Amino acid sequence: MEDLNLLAGRPARLYVLDFGFFRVHAGPRDIGIVGFLIVTDRGERLLVDSGFPAKYAVDPLAATDEDGLGTFGQVLSLTKENLPEAQLAKAGTRPEEIDLFLLTHSHIDHLGGLFDFPQAPLLVGERERALPRPLYWSGGQPWDWPERETIRLASDVRLGPGCEVRQVPGHAPGQLALVVDLPRTGPVVLTGDAISRPSEVDEGFDTAPDPALALESARRLLRLAEERGAFVIYGHGPDQWPELRKAPDFYD
User: Fold this and answer.
1) What tens digit of pLDDT does each residue of 47-106 get?
2) pLDDT confidence tier of residue 11, bands split at 50, 70 and 90
3) In whole angstroms, how far apart are CA 234 and each of 53, 94, 119, 154, 225?
4) How far is CA 237 from the centre of its chain?
5) Ordered domains of the chain (ranges, CATH)
6) Would residue 68 be called left, alpha or beta, if left means φ above 0 and alpha means ψ between -120 and 50 degrees?
7) Chain segment 157-216, per-residue pLDDT in tens
8) Could you check whether the bond before residue 248 is cis, i.e. omega within 30 degrees of 0?
């Protein structure tokens, strides 16, 4: 595994950020929109994902119509309190203090802050960044990739001591997951949408663009979690979401 040495310190705190609540019509299934802030023992700050575009906190119905998202689901709760600035404030952090911004993949509920935090290099999977545009959604408002400092991750890497990024394609071409070693909690696997909920594994990821690859990636992550005795936080686990500590609380 390559060492990028982008973080000098070890993870000290993991904040779960609440970017809103969404209903997937299939099921139906009500899911939290999650992001993370990792703070190291040297005060460095890594933001992982950034929720929906800000327009969803202004007029979610109009935004849903504009993006053609209504065929998939609907926003149940998303206000300005669920945007990155307010969520980071719960963790005692200002947007300009973000040192690195990692995008697990480029779907609409993860890339809302794609043009924010200009001082922070954007970390994104090489296969994701190779797409002509971010995936966003199937509607009429696709975004172009921003002109900003970007680090394209082509393999599993270590950002710094105790902070690994894993390539887990299937749900998206460049889907990423993280493994974070915390001093008291121990190892934590942040699956992202590589495993949105545990039942996806038994279902065989039948709705993924590449089900076979998604299943292979998920099994690899779960083996890693078992080997390390890790706490697993799923991308959109309906049962897990209410139980997670959310900012200003944290895992340490």
Assistant:
1) 999 999 999 999 999 999 999 999 999 999 999 999 999 999 999 999 999 999 999 999
2) very high
3) 21, 26, 29, 23, 12
4) 13
5) 2-240 (3.60.15.10)
6) left
7) 999 999 999 999 999 999 999 999 999 999 999 999 999 999 999 999 988 899 999 999
8) yes
Q: Is the dihedral of CA 180, 174, 151, 145 positive or negative?
A: negative
Please check the confidence at residue 138 and state whether its pLDDT lies above 80: no
Residue 3 sits at φ, ψ, to 5 deg, of -95, 115
Burial code (b: 16+ CB inside 10 Å, e: under 16) for 136-172 equals bbebeeeeebeeeeebebeeebbbbbbbbbbbbbbbb
Using alpha carbons only, how large is the chain's radius of gyration in Å?
17
Q: Taken in order 2, 172, 115, 77, is the CA torsion positive or negative?
A: negative
Residue 50 per-residue DSSP state: -
Token pair belonging to 222: 């779960």
Chain centre distance of CA 95? 17
- The Cα–Cα gap between 194 and 177 comes to 7
- Rounded to two decimals, the pTM is 0.97
By CB atoms closer than 10 A (0-12, 13-18, 19+), residue 5 is exposed
Q: Shortest CA distance to 101 belongs to which of 144, 50, 33, 163?
A: 50
What would the two tokens of residue 193 be?
């949408």
